[in-house]
Design a protein that fits this description.
With about 425 residues, this protein is α/β, with parallel strands linked by helices. Helices cover about 30% and strands about 20% of the residues. Bound molecules: pyridoxal-5'-phosphate (PLP). The site of pyridoxal-5'-phosphate has 14 residues, from α10 and β10.
Length: about 425
């Protein structure tokens, strides 16, 4: 197990909490999902691989067969390319990406004027330099990319994005035809290569909404519009984890996998992680800093929102909302300590929260000093994999407690929490 850069490396030795990421679980999840997909797949590693650490996750996924990497922002893609270069992962060559020479797609294409895009060192020229694939939803994005390509003397690889019903990025039906014609002209001029047509599903985590079928119809309309402009892109892609799992028709040429790789379900109400055969890869743990008794009637934390009903043992956990623990977890967030489930009591502070350790048993005969149920230094697990360690809460439990989704629980984990890596830890090692 080793801490990695990107967070506060020195914190690994003076740590108050750590996220232990099981790369063996990620490789397992990749195999399960890739087998279900039966198509090439992209490892979506945006937002520092959903909080798990971009380089270890990306290289694990490449070893597990990913031929594409996906990130949202251009800055993330450039950062990832630099890490891969330093790690010796080859740059893409030719039209068929492989795990050794993966393609990287980034989909938040910055808004630049043609002059800004053509300027030396512009973000889009850096993107060309890094051999990234770029998403294009609008004519102005296309113009900026073409200007950068002209200045760079290198054709840009682009994926045209059609809006199939999410109403987020992408060209709506009436805008796609002029975009496709302009892209064809830029391709004929040697400035771009239209390698992809793509979109994103808005309700793929639901089985029977009818939404995904509508997305697919609009996607096929988009294919026809491109064909009329003489464009037949090699990579048509629409599905993320939910689409892959629950809407096989959406798999097309490539699937973009995020949450499932991390062992979490896109929608636990549709199927849980365990039902999908996935293993949650992140365990967030800390250590009790202090254990003490408080008397019945004593309030806990800011605002005194929780009051002890009896004489009570409480424990102090040194992570807080600055580390990504949601304040919405007040008096709800589940934790596991000393072999038991308990929970946050009172408000979550910036750097710490308090947990309940149960009533003080004062009615022993003969009277003996009460024994605390846990001690300073005991490990506290906020979330992990209950199959590896029975009883531990999951990111899904935290999501339910906080009124959010598992994606947000893991992704919001802060930079003060060092990530360390367990290469396929066994059950014994994890206890
Ligand atoms: C985040 C994202 C994905 C991955 O989605 P998951 O539900 O995590 O699998 C795929 N495509 C796009 C465009 C995304 O933004």
């Amino acid at each position: 197990m080793g801490a990695t850069a990107g967070h506060f490396p020195e914190a690994a030795t003076a740590t108050t909490a750590q996220a232990v990421v099981d790369l063996g679980a990620i490789a397992h999840n990749a195999r399960v999902l890739a087998q279900a997909a039966g198509t090439p797949w992209m490892a979506v590693v945006k937002a520092d691989a959903y909080g798990h650490g971009i380089l270890p996750v990306a290289t694990t996924c490449l070893r597990a067969g990913a031929t594409w990497l996906g990130v949202a922002q251009l800055a993330e893609a450039l950062h990832l390319r630099a890490l891969l270069d330093a790690d010796g992962v080859a740059r893409p060559a030719g039209d068929v990406p492989t795990p050794l020479t993966p393609r990287t797609l980034t989909w938040i294409t910055p808004v630049l004027t043609a002059a800004e895009a053509a300027a030396p060192g512009s973000p889009l020229r850096q993107a060309l330099d890094a051999e990234l694939d770029l998403s294009v939803s609008t004519l102005s994005q296309l113009e900026a990319i073409a200007a950068a390509a002209q200045a760079q003397g290198q054709a840009a690889r682009i994926h045209l994005k059609v809006d199939t019903g999410m109403s987020r990025a992408g060209a709506v039906a009436q805008d796609l035809a002029p975009l496709a014609v302009a892209a064809r002209q830029a391709q004929d001029a040697g400035l771009v290569q239209v390698v992809g047509l793509w979109s994103h599903l808005s309700r793929a985590d639901e089985l029977t909404s009818g939404s995904t079928e509508e997305h697919l119809r609009r996607f096929q309309d988009g294919e026809r519009v491109l064909a009329e402009a003489g464009l037949r892109p090699q990579f048509r892609h629409l599905a993320a984890t939910g689409g892959l799992l629950w809407h096989p028709a959406a798999r097309l040429d490539l699937v973009r996998l995020g949450i499932g790789l991390y062992g979490l379900s896109p929608n636990p109400a549709t199927a849980t992680s365990a039902e999908l055969g996935l293993r949650p890869a992140m365990r967030l743990e800390s250590r009790l800093l202090q254990v003490k008794q408080i008397p019945a009637g004593q309030a806990v934390s800011y605002g005194g929102t929780w009051t002890a009903s009896t004489d009570r043992w409480v424990g102090l956990v040194p992570v807080g909302y600055a580390d990504g623990i949601p304040r919405a977890a007040a008096s709800l967030g589940p934790v596991w300590v000393a072999g038991q489930r308990t929970q946050v009591i009172g408000k979550v502070c910036m750097d710490q929260f308090v947990i309940d350790l149960g009533p003080v048993d004062a009615n022993t005969e003969p009277p003996v000093p009460p024994v605390p149920p846990a001690q300073a230094g005991d490990r506290v697990i906020l979330w992990g994999d209950p199959n590896a360690l029975p009883g531990v809460p999951t990111a899904d439990d935290w999501a339910t407690a906080c009124g959010t989704i598992n994606y947000e629980i893991v992704t919001r984990l802060g930079v003060r929490v060092p990530r360390s890596y367990a290469p396929g830890a066994t059950k014994e090692e994890q206890v």
